[in-house]
């Protein structure tokens, strides 16, 4: 086991949980984890001020799993989350971290799905319940003793829960749990309403917050790109096409991610290598030396492995995975702009991490401008520019050395000099597209949707559980149109248009969810691109349908 996992071991986490963390490739605790884990293991109530992206889920999941008794087959921990997506995400995290703990079960409880399987999982002895408040209250109204054995409670994204109008449900849930439980509350902000809950329902909570001093980051030009989590690698490859860099360091969170990205870069012909905590010290030093002397141009590193890395050639830092806190961000981007040179830092942000971006902007006191992925024309221009730069220095003496050969080839093949030059270009391109049509055909990336599509105002009861998209049936893809209720659209209008113009059978179309400013439609995955092509010019209620594949991260 590497020295870095020692960082977790020293916190007192159960060995089975340590083994699971090691398997997912975490190298060291994030700051919120380093602070919160000992407090939770020590049995204290706690208020943690942290947003998505800081590693807060593991900050409570790891100590709770360390304290669970797998032999007792009854609910022991309850995690409350504001939305279905977050509940599912947290439940998945618990499943991952409990992989080496036979007998530990996790159940996710949320609206919009049948209650039967959820009840069955509880009856089968799941110890961890991850729930949205609304549906949990429904369960409680049928079985008031459901939470009577709970020992650990976590309120995750407590401020979001209150914004969504769950205050009354929370009170019902508090009442249904033993007072002797340990309670932990995580919230990005601590408005009065959250403090009031803590005052009433937590016992002498310890307050944990990652100190955020204002930091200065001069000389470094910063930008961010919104991207879905599963599209980070293609996005990086696309960005690199147009970035003029000398050496670059890309930061990711896990060992596996260093390997995946380095492999993708190498496959595209970049001189790239991975740097992570599993790589022996002497090998790490060799990688850094290679970056210094130009045998490597890109290093993909975790924070741990990049410690002490100081290479003046670095012109670019790509934060492919979000750093855990603003200090770490400032530290990472400080790897460029060395020796008085200009540097450029780029941050990839998934839709759930927008808040973290705002925190970074506040702490660094700088706006981190949004950039978009380069379009096909920009990619092509950059490729042509590179080709020009590479050929220009050769023309001076290439004619003297290779002119005769050229004449011979023209004669032997029987073609024009232009035809031969074009053939040589194609060969030099080595499979890389050099026409607009070809570049356009290269993998298109799915744009992220606009600002977080979740309203801040409290919702009517019953409405709120429907906010998050429902889980997809197999073979279905979710598509989105910017037309919604405010455009006067109803589900039957969308259904009619898609049936008529797409030539589909009724049963091929799944759920249609009409929201205020957009709608989601479930369509068959098979032949989806063709179908979307057919619907390209479809109008509903006089407005363009603009149906696109929709991905959540
Ligand atoms: P969260 O803030 O809980 O949403 O976590 C954000 C992401 O960080 C998740 O994808 C986690 O898998 C990842 N993560 C959490 N803790 C660590 C760690 N110590 N090392 C590497 N990745 C982590």
TrEMBL record:
Residue intervals passing through the bilayer: none
Compartments reported by the entry? Cytoplasm
User: Bias category Basic and acidic residues: which stretches?
Assistant: 451-468
Q: Start and end of every DEAD-box RNA helicase Q domain? A: 6-34
Q: Name one Pfam family in it.
A: Helicase_C
Q: Taxonomically, which superkingdom?
A: Bacteria
Q: Which residues form the Helicase C-terminal domain?
A: 232-379
Its EC number(s): 3.6.4.13
Q: Which reaction does it catalyse?
A: ATP + H2O = ADP + phosphate + H(+)
Function noted in UniProt: DEAD-box RNA helicase involved in various cellular processes at low temperature, including ribosome biogenesis, mRNA degradation and translation initiation.
Q: What is this protein called?
A: ATP-dependent RNA helicase DeaD
Gene name per UniProt: deaD
């Amino acid at each position: 086991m590497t020295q870095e996992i020692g960082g977790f071991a020293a916190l007192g986490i159960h060995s089975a949980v340590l083994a699971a963390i090691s398997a997912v490739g975490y190298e060291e605790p994030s700051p919120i984890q380093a602070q919160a884990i000992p407090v939770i293991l020590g049995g204290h109530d706690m208020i943690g001020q942290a947003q998505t992206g800081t590693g807060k889920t593991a900050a409570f999941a790891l100590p709770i799993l360390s304290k669970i008794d797998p032999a007792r087959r009854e609910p022991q921990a309850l995690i409350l989350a504001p939305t279905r997506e977050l509940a599912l995400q947290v439940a998945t995290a618990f499943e991952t971290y409990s992989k080496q703990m036979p007998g530990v079960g996790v159940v996710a409880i949320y609206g919009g799905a049948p209650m039967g399987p959820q009840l069955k999982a509880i009856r089968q002895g799941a110890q961890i319940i991850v729930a949205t408040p609304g549906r949990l209250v429904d369960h409680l109204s049928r079985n008031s003793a459901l939470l009577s054995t709970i020992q650990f409670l976590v309120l995750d994204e407590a401020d979001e829960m209150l914004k969504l109008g769950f205050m009354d449900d929370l009170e019902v849930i508090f009442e249904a749990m033993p007072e002797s439980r340990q309670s932990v509350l995580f919230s990005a902000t601590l408005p009065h309403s959250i403090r009031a809950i803590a005052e009433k329902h937590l016992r002498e909570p310890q307050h944990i917050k990652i100190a955020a001093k204002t930091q200065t980051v001069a000389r470094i030009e910063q930008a961010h790109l919104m991207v879905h989590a599963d599209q980070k690698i293609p996005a990086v490859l696309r960005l690199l096409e147009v970035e003029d860099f000398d050496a670059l360091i890309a930061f990711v969170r896990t060992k596996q991610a260093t390997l995946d990205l380095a492999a993708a870069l190498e496959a595209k012909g970049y001189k790239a290598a991975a740097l992570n905590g599993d790589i022996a010290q002497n090998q790490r030093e060799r990688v850094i030396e290679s970056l210094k002397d130009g045998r490597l141009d890109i290093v993909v590193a975790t924070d741990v492995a990049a410690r002490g890395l100081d290479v003046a050639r670095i012109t670019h830092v790509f934060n492919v995975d979000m750093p855990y806190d603003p200090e770490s961000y400032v530290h990472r981007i400080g790897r460029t702009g060395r020796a008085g040179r200009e540097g450029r830092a780029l941050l990839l942000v998934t839709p759930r991490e927008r808040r973290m971006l705002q925190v970074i902007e506040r702490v660094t006191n700088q706006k981190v401008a949004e950039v978009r992925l380069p379009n096909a024309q920009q990619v092509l221009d950059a490729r042509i520019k590179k080709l020009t730069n590479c050929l220009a220095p050769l023309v001076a003496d290439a004619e003297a050395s290779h002119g005769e050969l050229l004449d011979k080839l023209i004669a032997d093949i029987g073609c024009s000099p232009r035809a031969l030059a074009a053939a040589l270009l194609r060969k030099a391109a080595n499979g890389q597209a050099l026409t607009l049509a070809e570049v356009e055909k290269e993998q298109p990336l799915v744009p992220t949707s606009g600002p977080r599509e979740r309203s801040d105002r409290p919702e009517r009861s019953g409405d709120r559980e429907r906010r998050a998209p429902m889980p997809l049936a197999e073979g279905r893809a979710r598509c989105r149109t910017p037309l919604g209720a405010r455009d006067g659209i109803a589900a039957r209008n969308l259904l009619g248009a898609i049936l008529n113009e797409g030539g589909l059978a009724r049963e091929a179309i799944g759920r249609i969810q009409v929201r205020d400013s957009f709608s989601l439609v479930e369509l068959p995955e098979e032949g989806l691109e063709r179908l979307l092509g057919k619907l390209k010019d479809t109008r509903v209620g006089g407005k363009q349908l603009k149906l696109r594949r929709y991905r959540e991260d």
